[in-house]
Every structure is written in C-alpha cells, then in structure tokens.
Design goal:
The structure holds two protein chains of two kinds.
Chain A: E1 2-10, H1 15-28, E2 32-37, E3 47-55, E4 69-72, H2 75-81, E5 90-94, E6 108-112, H3 114-120, H4 127-138, H5 147-154, H6 161-175
Parallel strand pairs in A: 1-4, 4-5, 5-6
Antiparallel strand pairs in A: 1-3, 2-3
Helix pairs in contact in A: 1-5, 3-4, 4-6, 5-6
Chain B: E1 5-8, H1 9-19, E2 24-27, H2 34-43, E3 50-53, H3 57-69, E4 74-78, H4 80-95, E5 100-106, H5 122-126, E6 137-139, H6 144-161, E7 164-170, H7 171-175, E8 177-180, H8 216-236, E9 240-243, E10 250-253, H9 256-271, E11 276-281, E12 283-285, H10 289-296, E13 301-306, H11 312-319, E14 326-330, H12 339-351
Helix pairs in contact in B: 1-2, 1-6, 3-4, 9-12, 10-11
The chains are: A alpha/beta, B alpha/beta.
Chain lengths: ~180, ~350
C-alpha cells in the first residue's frame, strides 16, 4: 500500500514540519518514506508545499502530482490542487482560513477550523498538527499509536517543551 | 531500520564526506545545494575541520587545489552556474593530477537559468568540464542513500586515480528527504601520496604540483599517460543498475530523478503487458557501455529519459553503435517528466515496433 500526501499552504504555517513528522512517523512504523519540499525564492507568507509518500514498497518517483490526501491550509492551495486529488481521495480544509467549499463530489472532504482550534488550545502555530491529527483519524496513512516517538524525531531537544504541545494539537485534531 | 534517519540529499552528501575523512570544505552558496555548505559550517568546527565560505566559486576551487596538493581529502559543491565558474580550476586540477570530490546539484540553464531541477550539465560533466583533454569520474545518485554512498565511493576513486570525482545530482535529489544510514565506521583505503607537498624535512627532492608544461613533447606524453589511466577506468569502473531487463524489448535509460520517474512508468507499462526494462547508469563517466552494448543485441529500441534537450542520448547511440533506434523523452528548464509522459512514450515506441 502507498499513500501520497500533499501539504500546501503559506510559508510559516508549518507545512514542511507537518510533512517531516508524517515521514518520520511512517519511518518508525517500518514504511518506506520520501519527503520533497517545494523550494524556491520563498518566504514567510509566500506559498509552500511538500510531497510525502508512505509506502510498503520501494518508492519510485518522490513527486506527488495526484495525492491521495491533500491538506489545504489556504485558499490558493485549494484552488491550485483541488482537481489533482485522486478520485476517492481525501481533502482536509482549514476552514478558519478557507471560506469556500470543495466543489468535487468524488472525494472525502473534512472541514477543520484548524487555525481557530489551535488558538483555542493556546498553540496558535500548530494548526498544521491539528490537520495532521484529523488526517490520522480519517486516513490510514500512519497509526495513532506511538505519536510521541514520531514527535521526538522532529522537535529538537532544545525545544522539548514543544513535544507535549504538538501531541495535544494532534490529539485535538484527532478527537474533534 | 533503527539507525536510519531522514536527511536531505544535500545533508547526506555532507555527512558522508566527513565520514569519508574529508576535513576541508570550501564553497560559495547557491540554490539548490546550500544545505551542503550549511551542514559543513555547523559540523566542521566541532570536529577540528575547516569550513570556509570563499569570496567566489573561483576562489573556492583554488582553495581546493591547494589542500589537495597537500594530500588531504577536500571537497567543494555548487550548482550549475557555480560549476561553470569552477571549471578553470577543474582543468588545472586535472592538469596537476589532483584528487578531489566536486558536487554539482544541477538547476535549469543555460546562464543564470532557474533554480529548479535539471540534468542539462551532462555534457559539461562527462565530456571534460573545462579546457584541455581531460575527464572527471561522474557519479549519478538516484536516492538519498546513494548521495551518501557515492560520495564515499567518489573520494575513494579520486584518490585511487588522482583525479576529480563529480557527484552529478539535481535539485530534487538535493532537496528531498529519505531514510539514510551512514556507517560510523566507513572503511577508508589509504592511498600513498608521494607527490604531495607536505614538507621535505630535507630528506627528499621538492614536490611540485603544477599544470604548466611548456615543452610540447613532454605535455603530449602527459596527455597520453593520463588517457591510459582513463582507459583503465573505463575498463574497471563502469556502474549501472538493471531493472526488469531480462525479457525487455524496450529499454528505458535514465539516471538520477529521471530514473525514479521512469521506474514508475516501467512498472505501469509491465502491468499493461509491455516488455520494457530500465538501465540506470550510476557512472556517467565512464559511461556503462558494456551493459548498454549487451542490451543492444537483445532489445528493439531505447528511450533516453532526461531533464535536458537530449545529451545522454548521444552516449547511448555511441555505446550501442546505433544498432537500435534511440528515442528521447524529456522536459527542461526545471520541469520533470511525469511517469505518464514516460509511459506514453513507451506506448508510442511499442506501437512503432516491428
């Protein structure tokens, strides 16, 4: 089995971090993984996206052009990638920031007011991880078990206090 | 699995270089390879090594020349326009028979071009890389693990043959993360370097490292000798990986990111019942002529998949003596062919087979 994930949003929303967490989580579960960022003259507030593949088999191309799962963290990302999602795939929308609905009817759509929910748990920078929690719940990309092990791989030791906050954000998204 | 960590291709190169005993790095930043310099800047001071951001690419490659002259392992890295700037130094190093590892994480060109992935420096890398008759050993990784493994191999080949090894990667390979494992205990073969300028202790004649040779007869002799070495390398160091080639009628040839994309297309085409395989050159110089020449007697057509206007396609024709048609499937300017594009080309070629 292979899951192709595309996370897209503004620079500064933790798009690359969320992708890195999912890749590490997959790695700790014994999966083959790849993570490919968009790169370029990008800055905070500009667009950013990253492609993650989690697979039981060796991964060929690391480029995701037709994702199974799309995280749309801002409107330009939904506009750009909505039609690329595989039929039967999943779109998770940050509905705090995106006011329109997904137009397709052949995909599973989840509207998550992630930016608001993150603010509500006093973790305004972690809307990305709320989206991750929802993705874990609604897809079988990675398991809900062993979250802490995955988080520890991506949070540097200096910021150890962020581990529990990240876990809380993921759980909040998972349990919504 | 336990020892595997996620690293960017660029970081894997830097870490592998250190594990291979490289304690000197000189460079100048350029996208999409700057993570190599950043990694070195962080790590080298902690282990007693040297990281230096030079004032230009030209300065960096000449610093490499200097360290290499003393027999130490040394490297530099850049991306396409920066490699052009280094090409004078690469030629001087070839003329002085100095070993080093140079990394080119290619971006779209010509000129300043763009910053997205490309393979359009193939000619520059494999046909010389500067003025004069010379070659570099050119290694083309297609995974983050190979970015590390071929870096270690590249240092070894450089010392073994006293010449430049180049890692020819592209922006995707440099930027992507995959699990990678780099042993703490890399086996390093020690090569004697009696030519190194390490001080005579008044016990031997001075060593002189120089590429100037004003007597034509002597310079001719040096060139012939160097090409005897190149012939040995062509004989002994060709590397390629074959995938589903056993009964293949169509052979896709691709390296680096193009090979990753092509592999998806080959797997898909096999599901459609098309007998197609993939040859992935790992050494671009020496080009894996043996495996291609053998394939030319078995398959009916070749497809070269490249992120260039068609450069490797010429080497395939040479290696196979044009026995079978060689088609090109490409994107340029920072674009990457999709598996669907490669699959369509496979179908097109299949349709034309007798």
């Amino acid at each position: 089995m292979s899951t192709q994930i595309l996370i897209a949003g503004f620079g500064g929303q933790g798009v690359l971090f969320a992708g890195k967490f999912l890749a590490y989580k997959g790695l700790t579960e014994g999966k083959q993984v790849s993570w490919l960022p968009s790169y370029g003259p990008e800055m905070r507030g500009g667009t950013a996206n990253c492609s993650i593949i989690l697979s039981d088999d060796p991964i060929g191309s690391p480029i995701v052009s037709n994702p199974d799962v799309l995280f749309a963290m801002n409107l330009p990302s939904l506009d750009k990638y909505e039609n690329d999602v595989k039929s039967g795939g999943t779109i998770i929308v940050d509905s705090t920031l995106i006011k329109r609905k997904v137009e397709r009817d052949d995909v599973n759509v989840f509207y998550v007011p992630a930016t608001q929910m993150a603010a509500d748990i006093s973790a305004p920078a972690l809307a990305n991880m709320i989206m991750v929690g929802k993705a874990i719940k609604e897809t079988n990309a990675v398991s809900f078990e062993g979250l802490e092990e995955g988080i520890k791989k991506v949070v540097p030791p200096k910021k150890a206090d962020m581990i529990s906050l990240n876990l809380k954000a993921i759980e909040t998204g998972y349990n919504m | 699995m336990a020892n595997k960590v996620l690293m960017k291709g660029n970081e894997a190169i830097a870490e592998a270089a250190i594990k291979a005993g490289c304690m000197h790095y000189f460079g100048y930043p350029i996208t999409p390879q700057t993570e190599i310099a950043a990694y070195m800047a962080k790590k080298m001071p902690k282990i007693g090594g040297v990281f230096l951001q030079a004032e230009s690419e030209v300065a960096a490659i000449n610093m490499v020349y200097g360290v290499s002259s003393t027999g130490k392992r040394v490297m530099t890295s850049s991306s396409s326009p920066g490699i052009s700037l280094k090409s004078e130094g690469l030629s001087y190093m070839a003329g002085s028979d100095l070993p080093t590892l140079v990394v080119n994480v290619e971006r779209g060109g010509p000129g300043l071009g763009g910053i997205q992935p490309s393979q359009s420096d193939y000619f520059q890398a494999t046909k010389g890389g500067g003025h004069g008759d010379f070659h570099m050993i050119v290694l083309a990784p297609s995974s983050v693990q190979e970015m590390a493994d071929l870096t270690i191999k590249g240092f070894d080949l450089a010392d073994k043959y006293r010449m430049t090894s180049m890692i020819l990667a592209d922006g995707t390979m440099g930027q992507m993360m995959e699990p990678v494992e780099i042993s703490d205990d890399v086996q390093i073969t020690k090569y004697e370097k009696p030519w190194a300028t390490t001080g005579t202790n008044c016990e031997r004649k001075h060593n002189i490292v120089n590429s100037l040779s004003l007597v034509p007869e002597e310079l001719e002799e040096l060139n012939y000798k160097r090409y005897e070495k190149y012939a040995q390398i062509k004989e002994n160091e060709q590397m390629a990986e074959e995938f589903m080639m056993d009964d293949a009628e169509i052979c896709v040839v691709a390296f680096g990111i193009a090979a990753r994309v092509s592999q998806n297309a080959v797997v898909e085409a096999r599901k459609q019942g098309i007998k197609v395989g993939l040859i992935r050159p790992i050494t671009l110089w020496p080009f894996p002529e043996k495996v291609l020449s053998k394939a030319a007697d078995k398959v009916k057509a070749f497809i070269s998949v490249e992120l260039s206007m068609g450069q490797m396609v010429e080497d395939i024709k040479l290696a196979t003596s044009c026995k079978k048609p060689v088609e090109l499937c490409n994107r340029v300017g920072g674009m990457i062919p999709s598996p669907e594009q490669v699959l369509a080309k496979i179908n097109e070629v299949k349709g034309g087979l007798k």
